[in-house]
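Many introductory courses stop at the sequence. We go one step further.
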Amino acid sequence: MKLKKIDSLAHNLNERPKTLGLFDLSIMGIGAIIGTGILVLTGIVAATDAGPGVIFSFLIAALASGLIGLCYSELTTSIPSSGSAYVYTWVSMGQTIAYLTGWTMLGVYITTTSTVATGWTGYFTSFLNEIGIHIPKALTVSPFNGGVINLPAVVVVLLITLLLSRGMSESKTVNNILVLVKIFIILLFIVVGFFYVKPGKWSPMLPYGVTGVFSGASTVFFAFLGFDALATSAEEAKNVQKNLPRAIIISLLVSTFLYVIVSLVMTGDVIYSKLNVPEAMSYVLITIHQPMVAQIISAGAILGILAVILAFIYASSNIAMAMSRGGFLPKKLSELNEKTGSPNHSIWLIGIIAAVGSGFLDLKNLATFSNVGSICVFALISLSVILIRKRYPELKRPFRVPFGKIIPICSILICIFLLINLPISAWLNYFGWLAIGLIIYLLYSIRHVEY
């Protein structure tokens, strides 16, 4: 494949409005990363895996994400495209691997969207209960959990989809507000909780040993999913060569800082063994006798989690659009709306699938493949940096990962380590998703691919 072929894969860059500046991109990255991970996962991992040492789990996961983020930065500035890893693996490894990469990303993003929406329902119904409004249980859980439909999750996914279909110019304003609300409630938790910290509760720091810290790192890696979604925004980013790498690094640094501080406050306020609850922040505040602040946190979480849903629907619709351009998916999915400049067919397809998943399916086991799928893609991204450097040395690289091959190789090794620590059930779910993708590839995609 020559450079003109790379241009074909990254085409249409001028068709979509450039509406995302550095602030917008950074906020989008932070909004995608800081979500259910900090609101839910922090306490659970502290209680079951790492104890107060969960801060080290987050730092390990952040290091892995940082190395991967640098690799993403080189590729997004060299080959700017909404296809992200799908395009990079096509350039470096061919169409079959590219298709499987794109298919994996679609599965990861859609499942994450549905899972987050399901978790959002918990905060939403809990908040309504506190003010005397009760939604029948049959309308808040899926048939697999004894209900009829998770209606709030379905509605919120469709509303976010409607917002995105109106164009990113409007969507980014709403997203920025939601993320700022989320940052506010996290800072509020830190400030209030700080005065109740008792350092003695951090002892023992590693109750489950070093093994628990690494096990926790594999789990909390899920909390950092989202920075990669930024790579799909290349077509709508202003000054993409400079702003995108900066936004990836900024979002990772800010998110890591918040994760570590929140973990320290949580485990300093409440003994780690008691944090195995889905609403850890609210639980901690109630335990230290701050019920009013707990209500504010819950209300903020309801709004803040919406930013995660928005980021992942946006990212997955961009992947679907890019795969459509290559012929792997129907052409309708890559058509841009004349008024908004957004791929509305892709947005609505992704939104409807995610809504159905959040409303009717049991996602508890299915969602576990998100870690497997994303880490596999990250390993391929790191490998792509090495391969593309070798095959296309003349390609312009506004940003280049420093220290030669060292960082990409370290990134691959860390991904392999994280994959080894994941359960077999996660792998089985991932292979099942790949099997569905291969059937579509053989029946449709292979006959329509254009490159």
